[in-house]
Amino acid sequence: MKTGSPATMQLFGKGKKTRRVPLAQRTASHFKKYLQRFHPDENEYSQKYIFYTMRYGEHHRMTANNVRVFLREYGQKARKYCPEIPENVHPHLFRHSRAMHLYQRGMDLTLVSQWLGHANLQTTLVYAHADTEQKRRAIELAESSSSPAKKNPSTGKYTVSDEETLKKLYGLR
């Protein structure tokens, strides 16, 4: 994590690609607290694993499978108190959810793609499919008094009185 403001972190992804991503201030604060608690004597150049498991009193690298197992177990426990939590909680769910939230709140899809580290924008298009809530908001906006179409009622309305044109428009000819 880069010190100073704004906080960033260098990530290592598939194909040995690296990228630097910004961190929200709250995320940076939580991360600093984690480091103070679990790595009090380390600095940013430490070669020790940031996330680890303990076996026989020794630190071992936390594997992707460890993370999946922990998330599944904690997801099941949390669902008892919050039924909205999905049945299958897994690491990629957090990545996908965060990307969807950024996109739904107006982040341009190309920035979402860069943030995710996708080499091809096509890969990111899965996040662009509008969900039911987005569709509902779009309909409400179109029907609201603040809609551009409502402000200028002469635009967008057509009157067709020609019988032949009407038949073509309705697909009867």
From TrEMBL:
Stretches the record annotates as Disordered: 140-160
Gene Ontology molecular function terms on file: DNA binding
Record keyword Transit peptide present: no
Gene3D superfamilies referenced in this protein's UniProt entry, alphabetically: Intergrase catalytic core
Database matches in Pfam families: Phage_integrase
GO biological process: DNA integration; DNA recombination
Keywords: DNA recombination, DNA-binding
Limits of the Tyr recombinase domain: 1-140
Domain of life where this protein originates: Bacteria
Biased composition (Polar residues): 143-158
Family as reported in the entry's similarity comment: Belongs to the 'phage' integrase family.
Stated name of the protein: Tyrosine-type recombinase/integrase
Lineage summary: Bacteria, Bacillati, Bacillota, Clostridia, Eubacteriales
